[in-house]
Design brief:
Helices cover 71% and strands 0% of the residues. The chain has six helices and no strands.
Length: 98
Amino acid sequence: MTPLAMARTLPCSRVTMADLYKFAAETPFEDADVYRFGRSLLAAGFQAKDLTKVLKQVGDAVSAVGGGAAGMDRVIEALSDMRSKGKVSQEELNQIGK
């Protein structure tokens, strides 16, 4: 799927899409990865206006330990689980630490 087609699947504004595109351009992550991260965060209940802020924070943390897109996926999945459960458990912490 092309980045443009993928962008059309995100339920957020053009401003948010521009922010995600800019984030992808400024980081080592591929456009498709950034859009996937954004979709996952939206599905977890994060606000569209907060996507780039959350992605930057997670990306900085993952990059600090030498991680890439797979690490981002794991952390975002753990954040999604924590948000849906309303609590932090050892299971999610272990997931982040992998």
